[in-house]
Input
Amino acid sequence: MYFTSNIKFLRKRKGRTQDEVAIALNLKRSTLSGYENGVAQPGIESLISFSRFFNVSIDTLLKIDITKLSESQIGELERGYDAYIKGSNLRVLTTTVGSDNNENIELVNEKAKAGYTTGYADPEYIEELPRFRLPFLSEKRKYRTFQLKGDSMLPIPDGSWVTGEFVQDWHDIISGKAYVVFTINDGIVFKVVENNLITDGKLVLYSLNPIYEPYEVHINEVKEIWKFINYISNELPDPVLPEKQLFKTVVTIKNDLERIKARIGSDITDIDEEK
Output
């Protein structure tokens, strides 16, 4: 059981003294000290009080070593994604951290994608992935970078590196936004998502490239979802012309074609006259 280490850790994380917490929970300071040192065991009423004070379920306080969680996992816990309150909404993610206990960004290149299907939950596999950090991203969020393959998301070029933020609660998925979706059947795909979880338990995945048809995936097939944050590429995307400029371009092409037709017609007339 991890109750003693957990309440001490959470108290210090909140920046509270034993006196302050004891007053808030209507306990004697010596009683709280006994709980934190493991020389006294709390009753059910005290457990309920600690659970409410720290906004963490009793099961989590007793069964999970919160001190061993990464910063992003603790952040999720503090935002209400509790393993025993939210149930399946808390998704256990295998990750790596640096010496400062902050999350790394693991990089999944095209070659590593095949192994990701079976190794995504394997700490040894994740540990072998290249790791880096981006200073402009939050240390309290979990990110991972995947290499894009193909032309389904043009104008984002083939081979681009797409960084996503781990989505804990899939009901937070916003329709019309881009996500990296990992399923066992399709592997890792980068798509614009329509969230139909409430109506039929499915996501509809769209490509930016209109030649690809959208398709549905049942939520039971999905293992991970990462919200699109940015991408890195050594290629510039194809320019998208403004509507007015596009109209002018079409008119110019049309005029050029008319001149070519007129020239061809003139040349044919000259040939007939020579005959």
Observations:
- Residues 25 and 237 are 58 Å apart (CA to CA).
- Strands lie at 105-108, 131-132, 143-147, 161-166, 177-183, 187-196, 202-206, 215-218, 222-232.
- Confidence is low (pLDDT under 50) at residues 85-90.
